[in-house]
Records
---
Amino acid sequence: MSDENRIPSRKDLLDIASLSVEEIEHLLKIAVPFKDLFKRSVKKVPALRGKTVLNLFYEPSTRTSSSFEVAASRLSADVTNFTVSLSSVVKGESIIDTIDTLQAMRTDYVVIRHSAAGIPNLIAKHTRASVVNAGDGFHAHPTQALLDMFTIREVFPESAGRKVLIVGDILHSRVARSTSTILNKLGVEVGVLGPSTLVPAARHGFMRGFKDWDEAFAWKPDIVYLLRVQLERQGEPFFPSLGEYHRVYGLTTKRYQRVKDEGIYLMHPGPVNRGVEIDNEAMTYERSLINTQVENGIAARMAVLYWLKPDTGSEARGGAGAKES
Ligand code: CP
């Protein structure tokens, strides 16, 4: 990691919008040797020996929480997984009191997922630890965006000008916000397809909207990125039924055949709703990058933890705090 000082470190990673293209390129670059480590019999480096990483997940997670745990261990940090359901949070302790308690333990890195947008920014202002946003409400999921971009660069090293079609629930998706932001920053074209209730025209911004799969296929996407239907974030239904969603917007057998015929790559952040966003058989597609995304999540998160630097001064600093598009 000889170039570690070329791009100054930040204290926190709260979103993609506030990162410069140079910072993103730096993180993608330093993730490469971390992925190379996976092929070795000894997969650890001593970079964060003596540091502590606290995983603080107020919402369920499989991939992100385990990936941060593995990433921190491979950097030789000590990892504590804070189980919210077993903590004093259930007795009414406020998040700031929880953080003050954890600060007294001199944690160096706090990885946080929360259902409320902005909680990681709030915590970043109240702690000297480096804060990594592992997903906050509808707002941002920056490490998902970094691992997605890293995965795209593996198949398309010259990614600028490539086309990614994002399908599904743009409205509630922090993944869509962060991943579309990183794609746009690095010159990748982004298209969107989904029910107008979940893909409102007002949210298109730099993204090109399509009315149906035929129109989207005619655009010749290089990658189809399927989003999870997030029923837990939809108070009232945004479409008639899951069966109807699958019929109109899902990757059905017929659409999967077209994806294969045209050699389009498939991505999905997980967890996958089989039979809703995607047919079972598409899960074994040779150009599915879904498992590669999971593997690359470790390398991308190692790069993030390695790059961030906790505040060692007497004053806690705030985070960058910009919003995803
Ligand atoms: N992609 C993602 O955030 O998955 P988890 O909810 O399992 O962490």
---
Amino acid sequence: MSELNLILLGPPGSGKGTQGERLQEDFRLPYYATGDILRSAVKEGTEIGLKAKEYMDRGDLVPDEVIIEIIGERVQREEAQDGFILDGFPRTVPQSEALGKEMEDLERKLSAALLIEVSDEEVVRRLGGRRTCAANGHVFHIEFNPPKEEGVCDLDGSELLVRDDDRPEVIKRRLQQFHEKTSPLAAYYDEKGILQHVDGDRPPDVVADEIRGTLATIRREEEI
Ligand code: AP5
């Protein structure tokens, strides 16, 4: 079967992480989420982490060159030879161009860019109630996807926390950055014929089923 190289696009809180976890389980492919990678770097106090933190705390995007290097190295890994799932990258036109160039150099192709669409009002509701586990970043929501035991991760038992950038003024800035810098990628990937719209304003299982259906269609078309 051909490789599956996927991009998850969408505003903050659209469910990229939630769907990314499921896709990872379905396809057993490496999952590279730039937000998670940066948060780990911040936690470990690495040079990249120290540099990224000030941007993330404000809700701004970190500079392109930092992120491009991080992802460039990962898609070349042995574990990513059958495909990969990218969450949160690319996020700007220069990032998408850099990824395009990298794929060309590796003689590989992107399979699909899944754009998960939700309104700004829904983003605010979701991020306000999000809880993330301290150990592995598993994601819950106090109302829409509650853990079995309050404040405790179902999967690894670690504490559930509110993310530093889920404060109202930072959410507003992140949304602004999305509309300004990431929205243009929809037209970019549409032109390349790989954009797939996903209505993210439905329960997570329904969204996951739609994505599975879309990917099954793409794979069938590839086989024809
Ligand atoms: P990142 O961590 O990527 O944040 P984000 O894109 O803002 O996305 P989120 O993680 O907030 O949301 P999500 O779409 O994954 O939604 P989730 O599934 O958690 O980036 C953080 C920062 O890092 C950026 O601001 C930037 O500074 C930097 N950065 C990262 N990548 C970068 C790049 N490429 N370039 C430059 N800078 C970069 O869901 C949210 C909540 O809703 C959860 O509580 C969940 O349980 C709930 N939920 C999910 N789906 C549903 C549903 N269908 N119905 C109801 N509730 C739902």
---
Amino acid sequence: IAGPILALTSRAVFATDANKVDPESAQAKALSYTHKSPKTESNCANCLLYSSGADAPWGPCGIFPGKQVAGAGWCSAWVKRPG
Ligand code: SF4
């Protein structure tokens, strides 16, 4: 019984697969977006366009309206968040 309840709760709180950016989509490919940053110092969590907290695993990004990007992700539009 705990499993299904946990799954429902998680779905409400965290990004669902349906609203995560698909790295295979044309826009993601155009920007070389990946859920796992190839850079050591830059990722979505420290990008200016990431609108979740730096420690949030998934969050919205202005480049991908209505979608969630991975905090650990990266794309070529990365801009350093000041501070
Ligand atoms: Fe991540 Fe790129 Fe969005 Fe920055 S612009 S949060 S690097 S997807």
---
Amino acid sequence: MKKIYLDYAASSPVDKKVLREMMPYLKKEFGNPSSVHYFGQRARAGIEKARQIVAKFLNCTPLEVVFTSGATEANNLAIRGMVQSLKQKIHIVTSQIEHESVLSPCQELERQGLAEVTYVPVDSEGVVKTEEVQKAIKENTALVSIMYANSEIGTIQPIAEIGALLKDRKILFHVDAVQAAQFLDCDVKKLGVDLLTLSSHKIYGPKGAGVLYIKEGVVLNPLLLGGGQEQGFRSGTENVASIVGMGRAVEEISPYGGSPAGRQIVQNIKIRQLRDKLIKEVLRRIEGTQLSGSKQKRLPNNVHIRFQGIAGSELATVLDQKGIAVSTGSACSEKTQEPSHVLLALGVSEDDAMSSVRLTLGKDTTLQEVEKAITILVATVAQLRKNRV
Ligand code: PLP
């Protein structure tokens, strides 16, 4: 049975071009990039090329790009690094629907008495209103952290508007752009952000690489101390092959360079059309279904549906047995078996939150796959509902 993968928001396969670019760095270009000899400098050149590509993508300078092990580390570095660099207790504004790698550091800083945190609410579609951020700001607010697009329900946030609100204030603006990067403009100047997070494995790059953009002049305490790599922000010998792969992956999603002009746009339109078909057919053919999140302000690849009277985890398990890979929420929180904090923040009841499934499409998703997934979904929901009566 050919499996159908509809969980691209959890992770994506490594693109062929990315793998090709990485291979030499797993073989002959094995030097330590901090070494001054030929081998080391070859590895260094690979990293610096990747840094240039990411800098161009973000419209910043290469020195402002710091490679990390992934987005979790980048988010921790942004938040904990910022707070630990200050001498006094500060106030942070974030939202109720952030990823765990933002929420957990915030909660830990609260427990340690180092920060006070306001978790701004969202509307019923999962949108963070700029007015809510404005209302939450206090005299000692030093950081605002809002994700660009939500990993569970795909809602896109008004980042440029919040950036404009924070302009000329002494408040750093951090944006987790992990899910948005391949679909939305990540020009840090246009967005008005000081810190921005990317993850390689969500954009057809390898696991084990991420980026934190750190605007020139921003002071952060490193989480890891040692050899002082990555401008001192992230000690430890660099994961050269993954960083090189991430550079190539970013080039592919850039509106210039690696991709022929417009290819990325065409690809995103195709994904959006398949997404719309999936949403429309599921809502039309299965009774008691509801779309979570916004219809308009939504990532082109995200479908998140509540199936009344069905446990999302059971539906995901049976779909998996039938060859369709979906998730019940974000991959990282799937194990908890608790209602998603994102859905609860939208005002969804606990029962409804537990009856949700997320399907996320990718560049390799085909119309045939979507049609097959719809047919199997319709049959599976009917079967599960029948078993209950
Ligand atoms: N932020 C968001 C919005 C995510 O979706 C994820 C992963 O699901 C992360 C951060 C963590 O990314 P990584 O796996 O690179 O640590």
